[in-house]
Specification:
Pfam families: ABM (PF03992). By secondary structure, the chain is α+β, with helices and mostly antiparallel strands. Helix content is about 35%, strand content about 25%. The longest helix has 18 residues. The relative contact order is 0.23.
Length: about 130
């Protein structure tokens, strides 16, 4: 499984466009992707700040999401001021029922899209997580 928290900053005056993109992304993600568990957007307290909680059955489902036509079809550069993706892992017994984030090896027969996604969004499990299972 792969769970992420996206820390998002948007450009001033782009709030309506950003929220329309998010509405479309949620609609298409749940309508066309089988591996999505959670996909939620939130406004932060700081102006122009948003968060996204994304959880997928595995990192391949996340990579599929990132490379999908509905994801690649939006002009994110027009609205984003910055974004940082943070892989997160549920605390045992307190993580909303989500399974642990795992980083399986890229299969030898992986598609070019999956290889590109692996390069763009590498998953690294912090060593301290294993002691906190």
């Amino acid at each position: 499984m792969a769970t992420l928290l996206a820390h998002i900053q948007i450009q001033p005056g782009k709030e309506d466009k950003w929220e329309a993109i998010m509405h479309d992304m949620v609609h298409h993600t749940f309508g066309t992707e089988e591996g999505v568990i959670r996909y939620e957007y939130w406004k932060g307290q700081e102006p122009l700040s948003y968060y996204c909680l994304l959880s997928f059955k595995d990192k391949w489902a996340f990579y599929h999401h990132q490379m999908s036509d509905h994801h690649e079809g939006h002009d994110f550069a027009d609205v984003l001021a910055g974004i940082r993706l943070e892989y997160i892992d549920p605390v045992d017994g307190a993580g909303g029922g989500l399974p642990p984030t795992e980083d399986p090896a890229l299969p030898a027969d992986a598609s070019e899209a999956m290889r590109t996604a692996q390069e763009r969004f590498p998953l690294a499990i912090p060593a301290w997580w294993s002691a906190r299972v």
